[in-house]
Amino acid sequence: MRHERVCLELVGTVRGRLGEPSDDLADPVSLAGWLARRGLRPTEEPDAAHVTGFRALREASYRLLVAVTGGGAPRPDDVALVNRRAAHPAPAVSLVDTPGGGLRREVAVPTPEQALAVVARDLVDLVGGPDLVRLHQCEADVCGTFFVDTSRAGSRRWCSSATCGNRARVAAHRGRAAQP
To answer: Which residues form the Zinc finger CGNR domain (predicted)?
Structure first.
């Protein structure tokens, strides 16, 4: 599932978190693929330590998001981990000439640590920014992922209407049909 925030995409790499979870970041190859699909293909192939680093940030992010959306206080060690990762230098950006005479923004290829910093900074921007009021956890029984509700009414219930929403509607229909 694609989110508009890379930090939420990282949290979403545990599918079915509240049921029978599966981890999309099982090894360095799956991490490399995940990074590439987000435009963060690193300068070097990720190794097991990078997988551990991304998983640690993912779990700290999840707990932090549960706390801030539930009105609780985040764990200090989770905040410290996010801040530590966000403090790493980001990939360099520059303006380059285009064939038509204009300029475009170009981002340098990141190291795995810089890619981790990009994700952590996105979380800092989300939690410390105006989108926090529209941040919700999916209401599907087993999902557990988060999304920013960009609907006009602000009443979205699921991370994806096509997957989690459809499952919930089908289950509700079956429940009604089973009643005498």
So the answer is: 134-176
